[in-house]
Design a protein that fits this description.
Blueprint (H helix, E strand, L loop, with lengths): L1 H5 L13 E7 L7 H6 L7 H5 L8 E5 L8 H12 L6 E6 L15 E4 L6 E3 H8 L5 E5 L1 H5 L15 H5 L12 E3 L6 H15 L15 H4 L10 H5 L27 H4 L35 H28 L15
Parallel strand pairs: 1-2, 1-3, 3-6, 6-7
Antiparallel strand pairs: 4-5
The structure holds iron/sulfur cluster (3 copies).
Amino acid sequence: MPDTAQSREGNTPVSQPIPEIDILWITAGLGCDGDTIAMTAATQPSIEDIVLGAMPWIPKVHLHNPFLAMANGDDFLKPFHLAAAGNLSPFILVVEGSIPNENNKQEGYWASLGTNQETGQPITTCEWIDRLAPRAWAVLAAGTCATYGGIHAMEGNPTGCMGLPDYLGWQWKSMANIPIVCVPGCPVQPDNFMETLLYLLYMASGRAPMIPLDEALRPTWLFGATVHEGCDRGGYYEQGEFADEYGSKLCIVKLGCWGPVVQCNVGKRGWMGGIGGCPNIGGICIGCTMPGFPDKFMPFMDQPPGSLLSSNAVMTYGRAIHALRRFTQASLNKEPSWRRKASKPDV
Ligand code: SF4
Ligand code: SF4
Ligand code: SF4
């Protein structure tokens, strides 16, 4: 939507409600574009709710995402060039994929978006971030690659890639004085991302206070609890009932679930429309929302070392308590004796 973008040249004061805002979404980090795909499944709100103006009291939104755009080629890149030159403002920069180190080799490049018309050379992803981040009203990292490096930043990878806070600095602030907002997940849980974007849009309209973030720059209300605290299988854990193989309804900690120590809300929230969520449906939690992912959670299919002590302790008392509960349950499955015909007095 370059015409609209051009008509809003110059910087908008961040202290005033913003009537219109662009979202410049770069998927050209090292990634799989899975976060954009995931976001299309969001319902709270959906991307259509945001773009079509169904949500009250937020600025009019112009979304520029390479997967979802009607425009392509130079037309698609036009708002990015305008923003980089200071001629499109305000905008939210969304980065998807990890940021490579373009200084760790003699030649070539790791990641790019578009071509420099004057030199004919690719414009690297790092160049885009360097140009756009200082002019962005807010910067949002989508998915674990963009937030903390993710799979591409595993030990031994040649790209030297990293998350946005490591690239820009953990203390970095946008022109609206907002820290980098990180919504991790591999991919990001759809509603977690859209809800965070919506929060920023309410901030832009002057209707929300500064977004609360934890030390890893995650929204606190989304990442304050562990998977375990919301898991459908929590009752089995508490009773010391652990699965030895997949396909069981029991707790899967012995199969490699890291849920007790991982901050993620999919146990509660599910994945799409409230349905799913890794351990709820039998998939071990591999800690994909955590800055230590993936290296600190590998090998994935082994029982987490820290859970050996807790699961053994739980088995000791959990099974005894479970047996006692069976007695109580059996009693509760019988009606009180005075309801039986034989026990009623003759009249
Ligand atoms: Fe893909 Fe996961 Fe990286 Fe997102 S975080 S780009 S889903 S690998
Ligand atoms: Fe906790 Fe994982 Fe067991 Fe769920 S499956 S109760 S998250 S250990
Ligand atoms: Fe990632 Fe674990 Fe959350 Fe699943 S439950 S999304 S593996 S952190």
